[in-house]
Each structure stands twice: as structure tokens, then as C-alpha cells.
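Hello again, I could really use a second opinion on something today. I've been staring at a protein lately and its backbone has me curious. Can you walk me through what the C-alpha cells say about the fold? Take your time with it, there's no hurry, and the full record follows here:
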Amino acid sequence: MMTPTQAPSWATQAFSATLFLLNGSSKVPVTHLDTFYAPSSPSGGSEQSTLDDGWLRVKGTADAITLHFHYLSSTTDRLHYELALGGDRDRKLAASRNGYLGLYKHASVEGFWKLEPLAYQGNELRCRIRDHLGQLVKVETGSGYLTVGNGAEQQWLIVRA
């Protein structure tokens, strides 16, 4: 296992990766998709549907989001990236006015994201994530939405594709 200051070469260039919340020894997928059940017929049947609302949340039953990490720069203890949806790089990650993390396509996205490496192992990076102001990315209690507002400090796992 590499220490945080021994970043592998892939960490200082552009790459795509999936994102997980670390919860003890398990990893919980982060997604931008909401799954719900909708009526499928007048007789009362329902079917599962998926909505891409763009808001990032942790959801144990979902596939993890794939993000594109566009490397910008680094300091001794941070890696700086612009983040976008892996399949649609026009959708940039940003925090709303209320502090929730979402994917924005037609808005001006300011700032960048700071990864605070805690450990590297192969194609994986365990880290804390901060916005360009240094605010930690957390999970809102109850809803599971990612926020730079209220919530407990979290560790994240980035798994390079």
C-alpha cells in the first residue's frame, strides 16, 4: 500500500473511476440515479423505473457512478480535479446553493474538487473529498444525499476503471 505522498502516476493525470462511500469494511455505491416504482397499468401493477435527477446520493442497491477526473494540480497533501459524469463530460459536478452535490450541464461550474489521499492500493484511492473552499463532502443523515453542509465526516473510495 502506498502512502498518501507517494501518488501513483495515474493520480496525476486524467482518468475515469467509480465512487463509493466507505462504511467500515464495506463500500456503498454513490449514484445519481433514483429508482422508484411507477404504475404500469390501470389494474394496479407497477414496474421499477429509474430517474436521472443528477443529485449524488449513497444507495446500497445501485451501480456506482462513473466520474471523469480531469487533473488540474496538486499540493503536498491534495490532488485537484474538475469532476464530470463519465458518460457525459458536459455534466460537471458542483455544489448547489444549499450545499448538495449534483451534476450540472447548462450552468457555469466554478471551482474544483480536492482529494485528500489517505491510502493508495493498486487502482484504488481511499480519500476525503473537499470542494474548492475546503469544505468536506459528507452524507446527509436520513436522506443519503452528498453535501458540503451538515453530516458526518466520511471517507471515500475511488476505483479507477
Notes: Residues 9-38+46-160 form a domain with the Trefoil (Acidic Fibroblast Growth Factor, subunit A) fold (CATH 2.80.10.50). Residues 69 and 100 are 19 Å apart (CA to CA).
